[in-house]
Amino acid sequence: MSNVPWGSRSYSSDAMALLSICVAVALFWEAVSAASLGWCTRRGNGEGENISLGESRHMDVFRGIPFADIPGRFEKPKKHPGWDGVMEAMEYKPRCLQLNLRQTNTTGSQDCLYLNIWVPHQGAVASNLPVMVWIHGGAFLIESPIGDDNRYSGQEIADRGNVIVVTVGYRVGTLGFLSTGDSDLPGNYGLWDQQAAIAWVHRNIRSFGGDPDNITLFGESAGGASVNFQTLTPHNKGMIRRAISQSGVALCPWAIIKNPRKIAEQVARKVNCTTDSGMAACLKLTNPAQLTLAGTFNTTSSPDHPVVYNLVLAAVVDGDFLPDHPSNLFHNAADIDYIAGVNNMDGYFITRYDTLSIIRLFVNTDVADLKRLLAAYTRPKGIKGMEEAFSVYSADWSTTNVSEIVKKTAVDVGTDYIFLVPTQVALNLHAKHATTGRTYSYMFSEPNYKEGVEPPYTSWIEADHTDDLQYVFGKPFSSPQRYLPRHRNVSGYMIAYWTNFAKTGDPNQGGSEVPVTWPLFTSGDQYLEIHHNMSESYVHEKMRMRFVHFWTSVLPSLPSLPNATKSEETQIVSSNVSHTTI
Ligand SMILES: *[C@@H]1O[C@H](CO)[C@@H](O)[C@H](O)[C@H]1NC(C)=O
Ligand SMILES: *[C@@H]1O[C@H](CO)[C@@H](O)[C@H](O)[C@H]1NC(C)=O
Ligand SMILES: *[C@@H]1O[C@H](CO)[C@@H](O)[C@H](O)[C@H]1NC(C)=O
Ligand SMILES: *[C@@H]1O[C@H](CO)[C@@H](O)[C@H](O)[C@H]1NC(C)=O
Ligand SMILES: *[C@@H]1O[C@H](CO)[C@@H](O)[C@H](O)[C@H]1NC(C)=O
Ligand SMILES: *[C@@H]1O[C@H](CO)[C@@H](O)[C@H](O)[C@H]1NC(C)=O
Ligand SMILES: *[C@@H]1O[C@H](CO)[C@@H](O)[C@H](O)[C@H]1NC(C)=O
Ligand SMILES: *[C@@H]1O[C@H](CO)[C@@H](O)[C@H](O)[C@H]1NC(C)=O
Ligand SMILES: *[C@@H]1O[C@H](CO)[C@@H](O)[C@H](O)[C@H]1NC(C)=O
Ligand SMILES: *[C@@H]1O[C@H](CO)[C@@H](O)[C@H](O)[C@H]1NC(C)=O
C-alpha cells in the first residue's frame, strides 16, 4: 500500500481522488466541443486542441506536456511536481538550450523537458492504440521535438496509421552530454531525459487512449542512435516493445565518446574554469549560455581530419545508463522487434565538408584526396590499411572510370564508415541475441528531390542524410504543392510499413497495404530497398557485403601500428558480421 513512487498518499486514496476529479472534468469537457477529450494522470489533468479531419475523424493534439521538472545542471531529470486544475496543452514549449545554426549565439531554454501527443479518433474514441515515440536527431547538439517548420508534426502518421504519436525533448550539447568519464560529471543526461519520457508514456498513455504494452520508439541520426541506446540500457526493461533506427545506431563512430575528459577540459578552458579537481564544481556554476557556446561544433575539416571526429558530445559508457559498450548489451533487446536502415547516400552531407570538391560541378575530386580520407578512417593500421581500403573501393573503377566515380566513391566511404557498416553490425547483433524480437533491414534510395535543381545537389545524388524524414512524416500529403505524385507514393509506403510494424511487429501486417513484402533480415540477410517505384525486385540480400566485410573483418585483422593507442583505434566493431555467410 505505501509503496507508491509518486508521493506519500496511499494508492487507494490517490486513485479515488483522481477518479473523482476525472469524472468531474470529463463531464465539463463533454459540453465544450472545441476542446479535446483531455487527460487525467496521477500528476494532473489537462486538455489540448481538437482538430476536425472530416466526417468521422478528428484528432486531439496536446502540446507541451511536462514529463519531468526543470533539470539540475549535469543531473538526471527530476520528477515533475504536478499541477492543480486543468492544464491547457495548446502551445509547443521552447527547445532545449542550444547553439543557433550559425553557432554565434544560443536559443531555447533550460526548461525544456516536454512532450507533444497526437491522438487520432477514427469513428470511435481512441482506446488501446499502439504508440510511436519519436526521438529527434541533430548530432546530440541541436533540434527540438517539433523541428523547424513543424518537421516532426505527428499528424499525418497518426491519421494515416491510426496510432498515437509522441515527440519528446531532451537536453543537447554540453548541457546534455558533457562528461568527465567519472562520477564528477557522469554524462548521458540527454539519454536519461529520453528515458524519463519513455517511462512517462508507459505510465500515462492509457489515459490518452494508448496501449502502454505497444510502445514503438523511432528516431533518426542521433535520434536513431538514441533509440538503439534506449533498447540497450537495462533501465527500460519491459517498457519498449519495438524500435526503429533510421540512419543511426549506438555503434556509429560518433555515438560514443571514448575520452570524454579531454573534451570536458577543452570546454572548461573556454569558460575559464581550471582543469584540476575544482573543474566540475566550476562548470556547474558557469552561465548556461556560455557553457552551450563552449560546445560549438568545429566544421573546419580536411580529408586528413574528417569532420565526423569533431562530433565530441555524445553518449559515454557510464556504468549506469550504459553498463558496458553497446555491442555487449544487445541481450537487453532480445524481446524487442527492431528495424534499422540507412539512406543510400547518408554520407554525402558530411563528406562534403571533408572533400569540398565533391559538390563542385566542374571540378574533379583527386584520387589523392580519396586516399587521404581512407587513410584517416584507417589510421591505426597505417599505410597498409589505406592501401587495402583503396583496393576494395576502386575495384570496379576500370569499367566505370568517369569523373563522377571518385566523388561517388568518397560519398560511399562516408556512408559506409559513418552509418551503413555500424548499422549492419547492429542488425547482426540484434538478430544474434533475439529471442522473440524480429529484425528487419532497409535501404532508402529515393533520389534527393533537389537533385540537379538546387546546389549543392547534383544529378547523381540519391538519398542524402535526413531525406527520409519528409516521407516518414507525410510532408508530400500535408504540403502537396511542394511534391510530385510519386513522392506521395513513397510517403504512403513508409507510413504503412512503419505503422504496421508499430501495431504487429511485422511491417507487412497491421491494416495498411504495402507494395512489397518486406522479409525478415534473419532469412538470409535480406533487406528492403525503399523507393517510389518499388516492386518485388526491390528485395535484396547482403547489403554492400564486400565493404561491410572489409570494415568488420579485413581491417581489424591487420596489425595496428605500434604507436596506435587504444583510443585512436578505428571505431568499427570487429565482430562476426554475418550469422550466415561472409
Ligand atoms: C472534437 O470535434 C469533433 C468534430 O470535429 C466532435 O465530434 C467531437 O465530439 C469533439 N470532441 C470533444 C471532446 O469535444
Ligand atoms: C543572443 O541571444 C539573446 C537572446 O536571444 C539576445 O538577447 C542577445 O542579444 C544575442 N546576442 C548576440 C550577440 O546576438
Ligand atoms: C575568460 O577570461 C578572458 C580573459 O579574462 C575573458 O576575455 C573571457 O571573456 C572569459 N570567458 C568567459 C566565458 O568568461
Ligand atoms: C578545428 O579542427 C581543425 C582540424 O580538423 C583544427 O586544425 C582546428 O584547430 C580546430 N579548431 C578549433 C577552434 O578547435
Ligand atoms: C581514371 O581515368 C583518368 C583519365 O580519364 C586517369 O587519369 C585515372 O588514372 C583513372 N583512374 C583509375 C583509378 O583508373
Ligand atoms: C503511385 O501508386 C499507384 C498505385 O498505388 C500507381 O498507380 C501510380 O503509378 C504510382 N505513381 C507513381 C508516380 O509512381
Ligand atoms: C498492439 O496493437 C495491435 C493493434 O491495435 C493489437 O492488435 C495488439 O493486440 C496490441 N498489443 C500487443 C501486445 O501487440
Ligand atoms: C521502375 O520499375 C520498372 C519495372 O519494375 C523499371 O522498368 C523502371 O526502370 C523503374 N523506374 C525507375 C525510375 O526506377
Ligand atoms: C605513428 O607512426 C606512423 C609511422 O609508423 C606515423 O606516420 C604517425 O605519425 C605516428 N603517429 C603518431 C600519433 O605518432
Ligand atoms: C567469430 O566466429 C568464430 C567461429 O564461429 C569464433 O571463433 C570467433 O571468436 C568469433 N569472433 C568474434 C569477434 O565474435
Automatic annotation (TrEMBL):
One of its GO terms (biological process) is lipid catabolic process. Residues 1-34 form the signal peptide. Residues 42-551 form the Carboxylesterase type B domain. It catalyses: cholesteryl (9Z-octadecenoate) + H2O = cholesterol + (9Z)-octadecenoate + H(+); 9-hexadecanoyloxy-octadecanoate + H2O = 9-hydroxy-octadecanoate + hexadecanoate + H(+); a butanoate ester + H2O = an aliphatic alcohol + butanoate + H(+); 1,2,3-trioctanoylglycerol + H2O = dioctanoylglycerol + octanoate + H(+). GO terms for molecular function: acetylesterase activity; sterol ester esterase activity; triacylglycerol lipase activity. GO terms for cellular component: extracellular region. Keywords: Disulfide bond, Glycoprotein, Hydrolase, Lipid degradation, Lipid metabolism, Secreted, Serine esterase, Signal. Its main location: secreted. Its EC number is 3.1.1.-. It is found in: Secreted. InterPro entries: AB_hydrolase_fold (IPR029058), CarbesteraseB (IPR002018), Carboxylesterase_B_AS (IPR019826), Neuroligin/BSAL (IPR051093). It holds the Pfam family COesterase. Belongs to the type-B carboxylesterase/lipase family. Interacts with CLC. This is Carboxylic ester hydrolase. It comes from Neogobius melanostomus.
